[in-house]
Amino acid sequence: MLQATSKTICSIKPLQEEWCGHLYDRFAHSSLFLSKCDNPDNYHQQLLENTESWIALREQKIIGFICMNWKSDFPPFQEANIPEITTLIVLPEMRNQGVATALISRIELKALRACRRIGIGVSLSPAYQGIQQLCAKRGFSPSSYGLFYRKQPVEHNQQVAISEDLQMYYMKQRL
């Protein structure tokens, strides 16, 4: 349980099949969730088989979700066998209460016991300042791979839109 003074904020649990429908209902509005989810049933199957996924619960309702792919789709991470956090979502009304920190702590613990490093791709859009700051606080450092726009490396002097598609990849190493 994550504690804030004397009040319990949330509990962190591994994603189980019975929570998948609730997960989709809670976060289907999120563009981050929808971008990975054309078919909710297929997405649930992917979550349960190919990833490490955890949920944050408050009063038996999902308030946050994190997903890590043990085999990253990002080629440099894939080649180096670096697992990647692919999704981190917290309901807007629950942000800045330690929920994302609790979720990322749980995933880090699992990943860094099994691997030397863990990675995350973060949008450089101003809308993602919270996760950018959280990565810095948690000890993630920018990777040497540079910027990516729509999964392609950004070349010197290339013009790109500042949107969710502009990303920088970060890594954290086991001490």
Automatic annotation (TrEMBL):
Gene3D superfamilies: 3.40.630.30. Pfam families: Acetyltransf_1. InterPro entries: Acyl_CoA_acyltransferase (IPR016181), GNAT_dom (IPR000182). Residues 10-175 form the N-acetyltransferase domain. This is GNAT family N-acetyltransferase.
